[in-house]
Design a protein that fits this description.
This protein is an alpha/beta fold and 413 residues long. Helix content is 40%, strand content 19%. Strands 3-2-1-4-5 form a five-stranded parallel β-sheet, sandwiched between helices. The protein has a five-stranded antiparallel β-sheet with strand order 10-9-8-13-14. Helix 9 packs antiparallel against helix 10.
Length: 413
């Protein structure tokens, strides 16, 4: 890393939250005379970007970039991960994980254009995001200095962060009583900290203000909602027969899912740095898309392709979770996934009801489901007698072993 005296311009990954709000004045104090340029990647956090420019300038930044990354975020990160069926530890739909590489890549581009000496971020030394940001920076700017205040400063807790912000006169939208650590984008909202740090505590889903993207299943309507999603080669393109752009599609599904209590996950996960952490995730639209995509693949993928893809989905999720998006291994897996999606086209009708997603209908021009073969009624296309030879050959190793075991046992008596 360059010496402090050489760092005169720093580009900061900026959200306007607690961490990055206090980092601007901290950088100004610790790198005297440096210019701080803030960059906010808009991946669908909505109103959180309101007033950011004024706040960034007031706290010491020379300028703020707000980059609208929603469309490429969905098309280049969310959809490939959805197509892969990737879930980290079979539950987490990777909402924070795949948002970091696209933000970090854009920050690198701006840092190069601005002639910056370093890139700074507000990720803690305990979390996963520090790895995701820095691996991306290394992929596109391997010589760039990286400043991670959480790994060097004297502040040790969010309580001390709040005190520092108050000392510097930085306005915050949180307080000590509601200081959950949250991350929001168009795909999800995560909650960590406070009472959630103990897995013994039930999340307060019905507490006003806790859930932001929907309601708890108990508060959902008593009447189910039906939705039909159309996919083209594994990519959702229409809702209820209406073609829409990717942003509108996800916003609509978030609305439908949230209203019906869909997509709440409470899990203890294994962080990359080695510790376990507890988080509560809201992913209403994403949960619907995963359910629909999984269902469509049951009739459009052959058995061997489906089983191999399911085996590799966990590895794909690991690469995303560990910040290894820009790696040959992830790219190679994506090439495999893309090939599998060539026939994943069709319509999936789902019933949403009090937190549940119930499959109602599946159709595809590439379906591999043949009613004539699958029927329990009489048919002329499947000779059940053929099963005799199949089972004899398939079970031959088992039969041979059992026969020899009996023979050996008899010889040993």
């Amino acid at each position: 890393m360059k010496a402090k005296k050489e760092i005169k311009k720093i580009v900061l990954a900026y959200s306007g939250g607690l961490d990055t709000s206090i980092i601007i004045p901290w950088l100004k104090d610790n790198y005297p005379g440096c210019e701080v340029i803030a960059v906010c990647g808009d991946v669908g956090q909505g109103s959180e970007t309101d007033g950011l420019e004024e706040k960034a300038i007031k706290t010491g930044a020379s300028k703020l970039y707000i980059e609208d990354l929603r469309k490429p975020f969905i098309e280049e990160f969310i959809y490939p991960t959805l197509q892969a069926g990737a879930r980290y530890e079979n539950q987490y739909l990777l909402g924070t994980s795949f948002a970091r590489p696209i933000i970090a890549k854009r920050i690198v581009e701006i840092a190069k254009a601005e002639g910056a000496d370093a890139i700074a971020h507000g990720c803690t030394g305990k979390g996963n995001d520090q790895v995701r940001f820095e691996l991306t920076i290394k992929a596109f700017a391997p010589e760039m200095a990286i400043i991670a205040p959480w790994r060097t400063w004297d502040i040790k807790s969010r309580e001390e962060e709040i005190a520092y912000a108050e000392e510097k006169g930085i306005p915050l939208k949180i307080n000590r009583e509601t200081n959950y650590s949250k991350d929001k984008n168009i795909w999800h909202l995560s909650h960590e900290g406070l009472d959630l740090e103990s897995p013994a505590n039930e999340p307060q889903y019905n507490k006003p203000g806790f859930l932001e993207m929907g309601v708890s299943p108990e508060m959902a309507p008593d009447k189910p909602t039906y939705v039909t999603i159309h996919f083209e080669k594994g990519v959702p393109t229409a809702i209820d027969g209406e073609e829409v752009d990717c942003i509108t599609l996800l916003e609509k599904l978030n609305e439908l899912g949230g209203a019906n209590g869909i997509g709440l996950v409470d899990m203890v996960e294994n962080r990359l740095v080695g510790m376990k952490s507890r988080g509560v995730y809201e992913t209403p639209g994403g949960t619907i898309l995963y359910a629909a995509h999984d269902a469509l693949e049951t009739i459009t993928l052959d058995r061997e392709t489906m089983h191999l893809k399911q085996m590799l989905a966990g590895k794909f999720a690991d690469y995303v979770y560990f910040g290894q998006w820009y790696t040959p291994a992830r790219e190679a897996l994506s090439a495999f996934v893309t090939k599998t999606q060539e026939t994943v086209t069709g319509d999936v009708k789902l019933k949403l009801y009090k937190g549940n997603i119930i499959l109602a209908s599946l159709t595809s021009p590439y379906t591999l489901y043949d009613e004539e073969i699958a029927t329990f009624d009489e048919d002329d296309v499947y000779d059940q007698y053929d099963a005799n030879g199949f089972i004899n050959l398939f079970g031959l190793p088992i039969k041979v072993k059992a026969t020899l075991d009996v023979r050996r046992e008899a010889n040993n008596k």
